[in-house]
Amino acid sequence: MRYTKMHGAGNSFVILENLHGELSGEDLSVLALRLCDPSRGPGADGMIVLAPPAADEDFSMLFYNADGSTGEMCGNGARCVARYGVEHGLVRDAAHIRFRATAGEITARRIDRENYEVRLNDPSVIDLRRAAESDAGTVLCSYVELGDPGIPHAVVRVFDDAFSDLDALREKGRALRRSPAFPRGANVTFASVDENDRVRAITFERGVEDFTLACGTGCAAAAVSLCLLGDVAGERVTVDMPGGTLSVSFQREGCAARDILLTGPTAVVGEGEAALR
Q1: Which of 4, 112, 134, 160 has CB atoms 3.0–4.6 Å from 192's, for a disulfide?
Q2: Residues annotated catalytic, as ranges
Q3: What burial class does residue 80 get, using C-beta atoms within 10 Å of its C-beta: 0-12 exposed, 13-18 middle, 19+ buried?
Q4: Residues 108 and 163 placed together within one structural domain of the fold
C-alpha cells in the first residue's frame, strides 16, 4: 500500500487511501502502530486514511493516533488532507473542499500551494474554569470539546518561563491528560500570552503521549478559551508552537464560539510503500 508523509507546522502524518474499502478497521489500527513507529516505518504523530464519502463530500477522513487508537479529528491533519485531496484529484473545487471526520463535516480551502485553511467543528462543550485533579495536584484549566463527539482539550495558562523546563511541563501534561475531570482523557495545551496578544503554546497529545511540534485543535481551543476569558483581545489569534505559527479566527457569541478557522502551512515529506502485514 502506497502512503504519503506530510506535516502541518511540524505535526506529521502518514496519509493513505482506502477509497474502496480494501482494509478493515483492525488492519488500519495495526498499520498505524507500525507506520507511526520510526523504528518500523516512516514515523509520524498519526495516520490519516481517506475513505469513501458518507454523503456529498469529496471523501471521508479517519484519524488514527500513533498508538493505534482512533481520534475524532485533527486540525493540522485536516489541512494536510485538504492539500492531498487537491493534488491527487480527489477534490472538485479547491476553494470549497468538503470531507467528513468522526467529529463532523469539515470544510477547507486552498490559499496557495503550501497554505490551507480549515473550518473546525464548533465547540460542543466550553468550560472555562474546570479544576482537574491529577498526580500533579489540582490545576485550574479551561476545557473545550471541538465537534460532537468532541475532541477533548484542556488549556492551562502558564507564564512564558515555564517553557524553559519542558521536562517539568511534560510530566504535568502526562498527569493531567488522564485526570478524572476529563471523561475521555484530554489533549493538554500549555499557553502563555505576551503583551501583543500573541500566544505561545505546546500540546501534550493523547495517543502520542508526548508533546508534538504543533496541534491545530489545541491552538483553536487555546485561542477560544483565552479570548472568552479576556486574556487576549479580538477574535483573531496568532499562536506560535514549536513547529511553526498557526492563525486562528472565529466568531464569538457571548460565552460561545463558532466558525473557527485554522490557517497555516503544509508540507509533503515523501512517499513510500508499506506491506499490509
Answers
A1: 160
A2: 74, 215
A3: buried
A4: no
Instruction: Supply the CATH number for residue 137's domain.
Output: 3.10.310.10
Read off the C-alpha cell for 22.
Answer: 480494501
> 231 vs 162, 171, 191, 223, 224, CA distance in Å?
18, 25, 11, 9, 10
Domain count for the chain: 2
183 half-sphere exposure, CB direction, 13 A CA radius:
6
Which pLDDT score, from 0 to 100, does residue 50 have?
Answer: 96
Judged against a pLDDT cut of 90, whether residue 33 lies above it is answered with yes
SS3 227: helix
Q: Strands (DSSP E) along 160-212, which ranges?
A: 187-193, 199-205, 210-212
pLDDT at 277: 63
Answer for the pair 137, 155: CB distance below 8 angstroms, yes or no: no
Same domain for 238 and 127: yes
Per the DSSP assignment, residues forming a β-bridge with 159 are none
Residue labelled with grid coordinates 498505524: 32
Quick check: 276 pLDDT over 70? no
pTM higher than 0.85 for the full model?
yes
Based on the fold, state whether residues 55 and 81 are members of the same structural domain.
Answer: yes
Whether residues 162 and 251 fall in one domain: yes
Strands 199-205 and 187-193, by their bridges, are: antiparallel
CB-based contacts of 43: which residues, under 8 Å, 6+ apart?
12, 36, 37
Q: Measure CA of the first residue to CA of the last residue in the chain; give whole Å.
A: 10
Same domain for 113 and 75: yes
